[in-house]
Structure formats: C-alpha cells, structure tokens
Design a protein that fits this description.
The structure is a single chain. This protein is mostly beta strands. Helices cover 10% and strands 51% of the residues. The relative contact order is 0.16. The N terminus is likely disordered.
Length: 137
C-alpha cells in the first residue's frame, strides 16, 4: 500500500488540483479569446448543458486562474429544473463574454431566450448578468 502511494506521488508529483476538473475528451465545443484584458476560454461538453468559462494565465506556463461553471439559472439546475437549456452565439467582447441563454421551463410555456454577459475586468469574472426574455426573429 505504501509503495503504491509513493509511486503515485513520484509519477504525478505536480498534477494540478482543481475543484472541478474538465474532461476535455467529452468537449463538444471549446473556444478562446481576449475579453476584459484577459485570455478567456469556454467549454461545452456532451455530458451536460453546463458552460464552463475559464480565465487563463498567459505568463509562463498556461494555467487556469479562475473558473466559472454555469449549470443553473435563477436557482434551478439545468439538469432537473428545465426541460432544456443551452448557450448560443457566444462571443468575446472588450467588456466580457456575451451569449444567449436558451431555457425551456418544465411548464409548457415554451423556450425563453435571454441576452447574457459575464463581465471581465482586470482578469476577474463577475457573475452572469441577463436581460428579460425576448423572442428571436
């Protein structure tokens, strides 16, 4: 047992530890760009409807400085609080990341679209900001 633990630390001595690791093999879409003076990246996966947004260090070795996992809206998880949820038209702008959030409530009221942004300033993300629902033309 001791030998196995020792071997684990020898083989993986500097493995990064993060609260939520991303399984890049399940990624359906990854894109990066500059926003708010920082290098940002978003990740969508086949596993769920979540959107992961990361701020990446550009000095030295590339590493994730900050991560935001968007898996709920208005206190309801995408997996159980909505019939469907997803993100569309994601763009990197000077003031942050802009996107459209599409949610379909469990009640038969139809799809709701909201313009959203995640402000980025000085390499730090704020939370998700959204508009009232609108109809796509």
């Amino acid at each position: 047992m001791r030998f196995g633990l020792l071997l684990l630390f020898i083989v993986f001595p500097f493995a990064p530890v993060r609260a939520e690791s991303v399984d890049y093999s399940s990624a359906s879409e990854i894109n990066s760009g500059r926003s708010g003076g920082a290098l940002a990246r978003y990740i969508k996966t086949f596993e769920n409807d979540c959107l992961i947004i990361e701020i990446i260090s550009v000095k030295g070795k590339l590493k994730v400085l900050e991560s935001l996992n968007l898996c709920s809206f208005e206190g309801k998880p995408f997996s159980t609080g909505f019939a469907d949820a997803g993100f569309q038209d994601i763009t990197f702008e000077k003031d942050g990341i802009h996107l459209i959030l599409s949610v379909t409530p469990l009640e038969p009221t139809g799809e709701q679209l909201r313009k959203c942004s995640i402000p980025i300033a000085d390499g730090k993300m704020s939370g998700l900001h959204w508009s009232n629902p609108f109809e796509q033309k």
